[in-house]
Amino acid sequence: MLSRRAFFFSAVATSAATTLARLPAEAGANAETSNAPQTILRLERRALEVNGKPASVFAISQPDGATGLVTRSGARFRVRVENGIGEPSLIHWHGLTPPWQQDGVPGVSGPPIPAGESADYDFPLRFGGTFWMHSHQGLQEQLLIAAPLIIHDQRDRPDEQEVVLMLADFTFTPPEEVFAALRKGSKMPMAGAPSNGSAGMEGSKSAGMTMAAAKPDLNDVKYDAFLANRRTLGDPEVVKIEPGGCVLLRIINSSSMSAFHIDLGELDGELIAVDGFEIAPVTGKRFPIAVAQRLDIRLAIPSGAATYPVLAVLEGENKQTGIVLHAGNAAIARIPDTAALASPALTLDLERRLRAAAPLEPRKADRRHTLNLTGNMASYVWSLNNVAWTKETPPLPVAQGERVELLFVNQTPMPHPMHLHGHEFQVVEINDQRFSGAVRDTVLVPPGHRVVVAFDANNPGLWALHCHLLYHLEAGMFTTLRYV
Ligand SMILES: [Cu+2]
Question: d(Cα 252, Cα 293) in Å, to the nearest integer?
Fold first, then answer.
């Protein structure tokens, strides 16, 4: 079935032998040899029942059925992806810092893996945390071609039970039809689109501040279900935990378009990392999570038998999904898929409070790029600096060794979770207020807001920088950054 292998180690490598010979030198002191065992990840079709109806989706699984990958910091990421979905695909390792040719963005990092073929990956893992993997090909992500990528490190406690909670949005409508309907401005698959907001934008092709003045527009796709580890609250995953024990929740928002507030119910959680990177801990019961972001939350479970639902309530609505933590032999009550109270729109109130445990070294920026987040809701064109990306769009220039700042200015009425590939960045400014915020890889920029992130240009190549809302990305809210 696998007729040929594609190698993405090096743009100049012409055979496996030359490629492998290069690796030890590239890998640096902390590397193991590239004889480390290779993990097979298969891209597969998978039947899934949602709300009692059958659906055909995708999955990323190991031969033994395990979903995604669990590894450890300091090991090599040595993976073969086998494409068994019958169409081209390519997997992005969200939040990792591979050589750029292994970053998994079709047309930027390399070609997609043809149906029936495979690609090999091999690079050192510099840090641990909660990451994830997903297809960056077309609209495949909407069909759940995503999985956790957990990298253990010295922060993990032996007495702590790890629980992964991966969120997703689901529709029975094929993603191409969802996108076509958005483009036509059809209200059919669009939820509660505020008609006053849309009307205000008619004809404002150049977007600009008129859009920012419009009413915030949150969920423009109407989903059939919201999933937690691929299940709804009609039949949620129930995770056995120890009364009096310690749980580390690793929450991944793999949704295509949907942001949530995590609701821990009666438990207090200690948020210890965002997007894999440690922060000064923040205690709370409700935490916002934008598309593509991750939250690591420590829970101290009270002694005694009880159930603890961990819920995610859709931004701007009361739809919810989640899992149930089950301590002892308490009875498990049915949880409705609507919350008593609607979740508000996500804000940056928490982001402003986050402080990186290991901030970037203080340094003046050598270069700052301003990225106006622009678009036209009526025709569903999304862009950066009014350019909807094409392969002809010139990359943003950066030079190796520079401290670079990116200023995101959201001139649209929708929030945009902005993601930079191949680098971790630090949030250093919100609405002109400087602070030493979280190190992470995806930051939310709400309507009308100005957010600055800083990063060190230490991983040369051609890198994607984009809004992580799938249909915004597809419509052109994407660019690249290049340095060698
Ligand atoms: Cu967007």
Answer: 6
Q: Which of 246, 61, 265 is nearest to 156 (CA)?
A: 246
Q: How far is the CA of 221 from the centre of ligand 1 (A)?
A: 13
What residues are paired with 325 via a beta bridge? Answer: 239, 308
Tell me how far the alpha carbon of residue 75 lies from the centroid of ligand 1, in angstroms: 34
Task: Tell how far the Cα of 474 is from the centroid of ligand 1, in angstroms.
Answer: 10
Q: How many A from CA of 410 to the centre of ligand 1? A: 9
The confidence score (pLDDT) of residue 185 equals 78
Residue 83 DSSP SS3:
strand
Q: In this predicted structure, what is the pLDDT of residue 217?
A: 78
Distance CA 324, CA 313 (A): 14
Ligand 1: centre distance to CA 293 (Å): 14
Confidence class of residue 216 from pLDDT cuts 50, 70 and 90? low
CA distance 131 to 151: 7
Average pLDDT over every residue of 204-218: 46
Q: How far apart are CA 291 and CA 255, in angstroms?
A: 6
- Checking if the pLDDT of 187 tops 80, the result is no
**C-alpha torsion sign, points 223, 224, 227, 233:** positive
Residue 415 CA, ligand 1 centroid: distance in Å? 6
| pLDDT higher than threshold 70 for residue 205 | no
Q: Percentage of residues in the chain with pLDDT exceeding 90?
A: 84
Instruction: Quote the mean pLDDT of the chain.
Output: 89
Ligand 1 centre distance from Cα of residue 411 (Å): 11
- Among positive and negative, which fits the CA dihedral 358, 372, 98, 80? positive
* Distance between Cα 373 and ligand 1 center (Å): 8
CA distance 466 to 408: 11
**Ligand 1 centroid vs 306 CA: distance in angstroms?**
40
Between the CA of 441 and the centroid of ligand 1 the distance, in Å, is 15
Distance CA 408, CA 414 (A): 13
Residue 226: strand pairing partners: 169
Provide the terminal-to-terminal Cα distance of the chain, rounded to the nearest Å. 37
Q: How far is the CA of 73 from the centre of ligand 1 (A)?
A: 32
